[in-house]
Automatic annotation (TrEMBL):
The lineage of its organism: Eukaryota, Viridiplantae, Streptophyta, Embryophyta, Tracheophyta. It holds the Pfam family L51_S25_CI-B8. The keyword Mitochondrion applies. It comes from Aegilops tauschii subsp. strangulata (Goatgrass). One of its GO terms (biological process) is mitochondrial translation. This is Large ribosomal subunit protein mL43. SUPFAM superfamilies: Thioredoxin-like. It is found in: Mitochondrion. GO terms for molecular function: structural constituent of ribosome. Residues 1-65 form the Ribosomal protein/NADH dehydrogenase domain.
Amino acid sequence: RAFMESHLPALKEKNPQLEVVTQLVRGQHPNLKGIYKNHNERVVCVRNLAPEDIMLQASRLRCSLGRKVVKLRTRHVTKRPSVQGTWTTELKM
């Protein structure tokens, strides 16, 4: 409630490109929901967070692209993989 009274109006003024909608749902924990142009959604629970922490979560939702997190198969990504194989520290010269 403190975030909605103090920080939410400032967030709306600083970011006119965002559509900010508040909705009261009784019996549910407070959440921030980001809906992106690519039709993905991200929901962040802000239960028991200070207004500054909620502002941080809102800015993270605003700055993210809305893509799903994809785990890479290897640590390095290259267009031309090595013919000799991957280098490791166990190789001796």
